[in-house]
Amino acid sequence: MRVATAAVSIASVASVASAVRGEAAATAIADVTGGELAGVVDHGVVAYKGIPYAAAPIGNLRWHAPAPVIPWSGVRNAADYGATCLQAELPRFVSASSRAATMNEDCLTLNVWTPVTRSAKLPVMVWLHGGGNRSGSGSVPFYDGTSFAEDGIVLVTLNYRLGIFGFFAHPALTAVAAGGEGANFGLLDQIAALRWVRANIAAFGGDPHDVTLFGESAGGEDTVTLASSSAAAEGLFRRAIAESASDLWARWPTLAEAEAQGTRVASALGLRSDATLARLRAVDADALERAGAAERFGPIVDGRLIAVAPQTMLARGSRVPIVIGTNDGDGSILGDLSDPKSIFPALPPDDFAFVTGAYRQSGVTDETEIARTLFRDGAFAAPARWFAARTVRAGVPAYLYRFDYIASILASRRSAATHGSEVPFVFNTFPAPWFSAADRSVEASMHGCWVAFARTGTPVCPGAATWPPYDPGTGREMIFDAHPSARDLGDGPVLDALQKHLSG
């Protein structure tokens, strides 16, 4: 495989570069599984977008483990993203002029950013987007990998199957799944992308044996899942970062429960309970998406890729060094639900009173904010701390953090760092005119931490004191606020009370 700068720009490549930067750019050729790619060279970084890492999962490949890429002839234009995987609606911020504004099943593509000039194999980072495993895309502008490439990291983002296309079971499907592929097709896509990286990333200057997997929200949950349990992903990455990983203590459906869900969807489509797999695969994709809209699809304990319940699986901790943390305002995804008692019904009255009393003593008195804080701690902060402790117990380093910074332009409208608000700080992608000097300082610290961890396994944060590995005895974690530092938030008793009743 090779990478070389082309002498002549491809017109369509130059036009895309012009739309982004206002000027034409050269192209670069990379030879990968499937054929040759023409990427865009711009300001010392070359981006290759819309690269197939598996065959289109359509027709007989719907609800099938990812199949090998179908080779193409000639040089493939890699100037634009691929189509977005089917979901209820297009993700916010996706450019209307990009192929990413189109949603369909043929969506298993990834994107690579790498520096043009390099003297050695570079660390690699692979990003899994959030969206509840039901929405999202690797083409959202906030995930642009230019800044990582400028810092000597090969950055990869990807699409994976979502919702009913990514996590689905039905008796007809189970009956023919003799190959052990199970029902977690979205996770299988992620593993296939990691295998593609192992086989091809050297063509972009990356070290195939120095990969850090990271993700946010559902992408963080999937990162933790692959880091803790999946033999299929073992050896494909050596470090992990989980940002606001969701559902770590959730009860995932069994295969039988997922099959019942699949049967309900088939019935809504007018198919009998004994419908064949061929009939299911013949259903129009948009009709299938609409029929599944009333259901929640996500990871399934299918006895194959995921063999045991998540609490048992995750209790082993991470197999690789991990950075894991939450945002101060992760409870923002709860919306306006204002009854704290309805958040975690399993919490006994005495512990509920203790936890909410602690919130009131800290100045959180509004019922809606109490509900959000309880949701943050029970669904995000306590599980992250628990997983870090389990990882340390297994003899593997873990680093815990809390993001607690609001961009200056949003300070008058937000009281906490909302779910996902750390992402532009990590990627250095917040529009320049909107960021203050203080914002840039926090951004440099957090982005620098992630880069350092990918390079060395130790998150050294520019402009901040040492970030020590998590120690359950001290409870210290890195707090990303206006002056990032490692300290104990003093929330141990509250998180202990929640863990006792919510961790299963």
Runs with pLDDT <50, length 5+?
1-24
Structural class estimated from helices and strands: alpha/beta
Number of helices: 15
- SSE succession: EHEEEEEEHEHHHEHEHHHHEHHEHHEEH
Helix content: 25-40%
Tally the beta strands: 14
Mean pLDDT: 91
Cα distance, first to last residue? 49 Å
Shape field: globular
Largest sheet: 14 strands, mixed
**Percent of residues in beta strands:** 15-25%
Rounded to the nearest angstrom, the radius of gyration is: 22 Å
Summary of the model, kept short:
By secondary structure, the chain is of the alpha/beta class.
Fold and architecture overview:
The model is unreliable at 1-24 (pLDDT under 50). Helix 11 (349-361) runs antiparallel to helix 15. Helix 2 (146-150) links the parallel strand 7 and strand 8 (154-158). With 504 residues, this protein is of the alpha/beta class. Helices cover 32% and strands 16% of the residues. The longest helix is centred in the C-terminal third of the chain and has 27 residues, at 367-393. The chain has helices at 11-21, 146-150, 163-166, 171-176, 185-200, 218-228, 255-268, 277-281, 285-291, 310-314, 349-361, 367-393, 423-427, 437-456, 492-502; strands spanning 3-5, 27-32, 35-42, 45-52, 75-77, 109-115, 122-128, 154-158, 206-216, 239-243, 322-327, 398-403, 477-480, 485-487. The protein is built from 15 helices and 14 strands. Strands 1, 2, 3, 4, 5, 6, 7, 8, 9, 10, 11, 12, 13 and 14 form a 14-stranded mixed β-sheet that branches.
